[in-house]
Amino acid sequence: MRIAVFFAALISHICLAIANTESIVFKVPDTFLPVPLLIAGDNQASISLRGTNRALKTFDVPVDSQFEVELVDLSPGDTFFAKLCWTAIDPIDITSLSYSVRPDYTARDGHWQDAPLRFFLTFKAEPNSYPHLSKPSVPINISVSAIRMGIPVDLHATIIFMTLLIGVIFIANRHHKLYDRFKNA
Ligand SMILES: *[C@@H]1O[C@H](CO)[C@@H](O)[C@H](O)[C@H]1NC(C)=O
């Protein structure tokens, strides 16, 4: 069962490597004071990390215009790895991928002191083909994962698996002299 999970993780990362990706690493300021409640009627695209250290969501991103996704329920002081992933079928480039922290003056009755902060990822999907891409929007997966021990948490399983695999091969080789057997086969 466990090994099946490791294989699934490995295969999913191989698939991701075939698709196109763009990534960014960012740190949430230690002083980050999030908006206490989501503003009603706000249909801002968002990804929540409530009670988890990784999340993935697919967005229909309009081509040739600035797209913004709000990251909510981030822990102050945490470092994250965000990855955008789209299929090679859609010939686009992701440009100006960046993040920003902005005070929300609409909360707390418009008081600008101690305004809560909102965290955004911003980027633009630009067509890179001729003739021009005819679709008005392309699906893009955005995954966000916390970085622990210098490695994004969604890669931990893969790295543990590969370490174990190398260990098993190493031990098997010592006991059975695999190399000599193959050489003399
Ligand atoms: C996007 O995410 C979905 C759901 O996890 C997955 O099935 C799909 O293969 C992903 N697409 C890309 C391009 O990674």
From TrEMBL:
GO molecular function: mannosyltransferase activity
Residues making up the signal peptide according to the UniProt record: 1-19
GO biological process: GPI anchor biosynthetic process
Stretches that traverse the bilayer: 155-173
A cellular component annotation (GO) from this entry: mannosyltransferase complex
Superkingdom as given in the UniProt entry: Eukaryota
Protein name: LAQU0S05e03290g1_1
Species annotation: Lachancea quebecensis
